[in-house]
Amino acid sequence: MWPYPTMIAHRGGGTTAPENTLAALAAGLRHGYRAVEFDVMLSRDGIGVVIHDADFGRTVPGSGSVPDTDAFDLVKRDAGGWFGAAFAGEPVPLFVPFAEYCKAHGIWMNVEIKPAPGHDEATGRWVAGTVRTLFARETDSAGLPLLSSFSTAALRAARAAAPELPRAILFGALPPDWEGQARELGVVAVHADHRRLTPALAQAVKSAGFGLFCYTVNDPARARTLLDWGVDALCTDRIDLLPADFI
Ligand code: G3P
Ligand code: MG
Fold first, then answer.
1. Which of 6, 114, 198, 233 places its Cα 20 to 30 Å from the Cα of 12?
2. Which CATH number fits domain 7-54+93-236: 3.40.50.720, 3.40.50.1110, 3.20.20.190, 3.30.70.1150?
């Protein structure tokens, strides 16, 4: 039901390094984490980059947006200076070398398909097609990245492009028809905001045969409670507080 790791570093390295960067992956490794969640969006010229916000201004200085900028230009942007001077110049990563780094270091991936508005299908298709190519020789299904998204259109496109890859649907609060959506999309797991989850909902998800992942859990006592409810996995920003072997 959930053959993947239990503890997952959110956005690469949580709050120990600038999110969604190679420096974040390195920080995760230093903290013993071998499982990450990160966000992938398409550049103007249709290349997947690792970034959360479509608009510049928070992690990348200036104005403009990812879907209006070519990958060639995006990789020259500073995605680390906002976090601290020591990370200034840390680039916006291209997805392919980012995933290759994970493969090389034995880091399992939850790839969140994060389409910029209006780019749902293209992003789902690109991520799934690219992961299929990168993992064509993977013989252990538990080693495949798990593709997740809030966007049902992106998940449908991902399924059409690479039906063999595992997918998960992301929710805030689980809607009343969560199970119908999950079955219709053929996902293996449900990803939920832990603040909106209840023990009864957790049990319902597990009883229905889906994996259950929670985001973003930063308090060890809360993590313990969720795991006691039957939650299979969680991502955390506090990889410094929650050890990778916390179970
Ligand atoms: O995939 C879990 C979590 O990352 C979803 O929310 O906004 O942090 O991408 P967000
Ligand atoms: Mg995310």
1. 198
2. 3.20.20.190
